[in-house]
């Protein structure tokens, strides 16, 4: 079985495609909200939008690494 056929049968490529579309939509939405906050001189809101966009982008564009990071945080707090 080829790698492409295996990825299609497991749904990994579909998941990656959906996450890429959702991530792109969230980034575009964040840019519009950033421009609105900048026009209102709401710099605190701009900072929170940037932080939220980075977190959501991390989960959308790097899902495996994000899951590994969450697991390592869980292990860090549960062992100590």
Number of helices: 4
Number of domains: 1
Radius of gyration: 17 Å
Strand content: under 5%
Helix content: over 70%
Kindly state the mean pLDDT as a whole number? 86
Distance N terminus to C terminus? 44 Å
Keywords: Membrane, Transmembrane, Transmembrane helix
Transmembrane segments: 17-35, 47-70
Helix and strand topology:
Blueprint: H1 3-10, H2 12-39, H3 43-61, H4 63-79
Helix pairs in contact: 2-3, 3-4
Provide structural commentary.
It is flat and about 50 Å long. The chain has helices spanning about 5-10, 10-40, 45-60, 65-80. It is mostly helical and about 80 residues long.
Brief sketch in words of this structure:
Helices cover 90% and strands 0% of the residues. The chain is an all-alpha fold and 80 residues long.
Task: Provide tags for this entry.
80 residues, mainly alpha, 4 helices
């Amino acid at each position: 079985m080829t790698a492409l056929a295996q990825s299609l049968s497991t749904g990994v490529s579909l998941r990656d495609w959906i996450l890429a579309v959702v991530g792109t939509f969230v980034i575009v939405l964040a840019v519009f909200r950033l421009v609105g906050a900048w026009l209102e001189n709401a710099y605190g809101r701009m900072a929170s939008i940037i932080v939220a966009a980075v977190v959501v982008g991390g989960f959308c564009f790097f899902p495996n690494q994000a899951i590994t990071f969450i697991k390592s945080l869980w292990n860090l707090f549960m062992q100590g």
